[in-house]
Design a protein that fits this description.
alpha/beta; Undecaprenyl pyrophosphate synthetase; 6-stranded parallel β-sheet; about 40% helix; about 15% strand; binds 3-methylbut-3-enyl trihydrogen diphosphate; binds magnesium ion
């Protein structure tokens, strides 16, 4: 069983976690509130979730904030999410990076179509600190398929005529970040929704019914415990098999 008071220091240790932060809209609807309130509630818990994973010994957390398919939503909802992202980066994240020398943020996705204001804020945040002990990656206008196509096109532009897995990995937005050991999806749906298609080839999946704004310590321990109960084989066999 996972011992929350003890950091696990083996090679099988949980180091990289990716989360599909789903369920904000349902959280709001259940309370008779507009969906925007669910997104606000969802943003509020991010910092404490990151700190909890950090306490457990995780060094990389990747959050799915907005997918390339989320542009299909009503303009009003998209505007709320983008405004919220700006305010959160400007007020919470910038302050955190200033105060915490071991924390940095990186963005995954095509930032070119975001508003200039938001894109500049993302670049500013990324430039504030790099390669720190704890890395939070934010997938914003991110899609796994478009990332793979983008990576291949970039490699071609750089003159490659033949690609390898290693070359492709270097051209991914996630270059430098270990593939997720664990992918958690809140909100109860058993699907990948175009998230980290390349990187999650051998990730363990944990799906929780809990809606993202309700995701807390209890759910984190449940997911981590579940992760440690799995036998990861990566296509091979265990020593004793
Ligand atoms: C996830 O919550 C956040 C984004 C996709 C931006 P949803 O807004 O998808 O919430 P549900 O799935 O409708 O409850
Ligand atoms: C996945 O949730 C994207 C994010 C959490 C940002 P969605 O709500 O967009 O996924 P689907 O539509 O249920 O597959
Ligand atoms: Mg959803």
């Amino acid at each position: 069983m996972f011992n929350k008071n003890k950091k696990i220091m083996t090679d099988d240790r949980l180091d990289s976690v990716a989360i599909i932060t789903d369920g904000n809209g349902r959280w709001a609807q259940k309370r008779g509130l507009p969906r925007s309130q669910g997104h606000i509630a969802g943003a509020k818990i991010i910092q404490s979730v990151l700190e909890k994973f950090r306490e457990i010994g995780v060094h990389y957390v990747t959050l799915y904030v907005f997918s390339t398919e989320n542009w299909k939503r009503p303009k009003e909802e998209i505007d709320t999410i983008m405004e919220l992202a700006y305010t959160y980066l400007d007020q919470v994240v910038a302050k955190k990076i200033k105060e915490d020398n071991n924390f940095c943020v990186k963005f995954l996705g095509d930032l070119s179509v975001l508003s200039e204001k938001l894109r500049n804020k993302c670049i500013e945040i990324e430039n504030m600190a790099k390669d720190k002990e704890f890395v939070c990656s934010i997938a914003l206008n991110y899609g796994g398929r478009s990332e793979i196509v983008h990576a291949a096109n970039q490699a071609i532009k750089d003159g490659y005529t033949e690609l390898t897995e290693e070359i492709m990995s270097r051209y991914m937005y996630t270059n430098g970040t270990p593939d997720p050991d664990l992918v958690i999806r809140t909100g109860g749906n058993f699907r990948i929704s175009n998230y980290l298609l390349w990187q999650s080839a051998y990730s363990e999946y944990v799906i929780l019914d809990t809606l993202w704004p309700d995701f807390g310590e209890k759910e984190i321990y449940k997911a981590v415990e579940d992760f440690y109960s799995r036998k990861r084989r990566f296509g091979g066999l265990d020593k004793e098999e």
